[in-house]
Amino acid sequence: MKESAASAVALGSPEAIRAALTLEAGSDPARVEALRVQMVGGAAMLKRIGYWVLGLGILASLTVIGAIIGLPMIVTGAGMAWYFGKRVKNINAGCDLYLTSIKVRG
Hints:
Strand content: under 5%
């Protein structure tokens, strides 16, 4: 599937996501839901990868030699988990805001 306008602003504010959904999906609630599932799926997968990197970094840091690699892995994994967790939250909020604005939910 092509890169959508909504995924380009997915980390932005919920209002930016709503504006992108207006361009991408029109007033079709099924299309909005399909875009939400697509965007949340990718972000949730990257969030899980962040947790794996965090866990591997903690395990690697148990040894002195592994701490050289483990500490940057911990920082990277925590950053990924936070960043993509925020992205999932913003996508859901933007989709709910848009669906409320076209009177489907609320």
